[in-house]
């Protein structure tokens, strides 16, 4: 979606607050209620927000994620900054697994100048991006290709990943709930991600600020299984204390 700066500011307010009234948005943006309603209508038609009587909130379905193209545009700047932070921390000459997600796709783009990487992925978009790097060997997981986002899932993918033990798993997630659980929507995708967690010496989670307190149906794991968390803003309560207790190293992208 080609949003104007006012609509992007409106969307950021909704992302920051979770839900907000039309009156609050009009006051914050310095525009009329009618202008806010038109902007909200357009954002809702593209799946970025959900309207309720008198206000707007982020989509919060626990059973279905946003479409791939919607997720690419959502918080794109934050994902780019997170990806740069990951790339700066990642050494050359190591082995990786990258899972499904638009954040991991951003990370793949940020690794274009790395050398000596051996990357396993169940994300065909990641494979396509990294295969352009002549100094990177890409191994594509076998399994069922999910047409809507080019992710590879299923038991064959699980069996394939079990052959390996990599240095670092770079994973994205749909939601992190206040109990510390890492959650996603497709149980087949989660099964693959759970296998990835157990076949890496370190686990690096990349998640922008909108993933905190976002509900999803299937539990992939817990914060205690993560070694490093890369995000774009300080996590809200109770996550900061939870991360410290689990001894997760927090990286906040500039």
Structure description:
The chain folds into 2 domains: 5-59, Orthogonal Bundle (Arc Repressor Mutant, subunit A), CATH 1.10.10.10; 69-252, Rossmann fold (3-Layer(aba) Sandwich), CATH 3.40.50.1360. It has 254 residues and is an alpha/beta fold. The protein is built from 10 helices and 15 strands. The relative contact order is 0.12. The protein has a 7-stranded parallel sheet, with helices on both faces. A 3-stranded antiparallel sheet has the order 1-3-2. Strands 10-11-13 form a 3-stranded antiparallel sheet. The protein is globular. The chain has helices spanning 5-17, 22-29, 33-45, 68-73, 76-89, 102-110, 124-130, 155-161, 187-198, 239-245; strands spanning 19-21, 50-52, 55-57, 95-98, 117-121, 136-140, 144-146, 151-153, 166-171, 175-176, 181-184, 200-206, 218-222, 228-231, 249-252.
User: What is the count of structural domains?
Assistant: 2
Structural class: alpha/beta
Largest sheet: 7 strands, parallel
Instruction: Compute the number of helices.
Output: 10
Q: According to CATH, what is the class of the largest domain?
A: Alpha Beta
In quaternary terms, these chains amount to single chain
Low-confidence stretches: none
What is the straight-line distance between the termini? 26 Å
In angstroms, what is the radius of gyration? 19 Å
> Reading side by side through the largest sheet, how are the strands ordered?
6-5-4-9-12-14-15
**Shape annotation:** globular
The pLDDT mean sits at: 90
Summarize the helix and strand pattern as letters: HEHHEEHHEHEHEEEHEEEHEEEHE
